[in-house]
Amino acid sequence: MHSSVRKLLRLIFVIALLAVFWLALLPAPEVAKLVSWQDKIEHAVLFALLALLALAAWPERPLAIALGLLLYGAAMEFAQSMTAHRFGDPWDWVADAVGLFVLLPFALARRRRLRG
What's the predicted TM-score (pTM) here? Predict the structure, then answer.
């Protein structure tokens, strides 16, 4: 992949991180729930998408990405616990981790193929 595309992906990733964190600190909107654990599915999908974006920008760094996003998720839950209108939920962080770790084996296999 061309280096200018990687730079653009990196910028988009950083903007996404900032936007998600900001949105996570706003009052929670009312959302129609299809299942009681829908919130956890949303966390897993969000973190899988963030990981995919990060892996496109830094394909050689899957473990650093996973660790960084785990810390980011923990920081987000802590920050939410400091607001009057949100609360930090350790199960949300577990859902974040599930979203990451579902992708991690694929990312590691891809890295091995690229190193060939």
Answer: 0.87
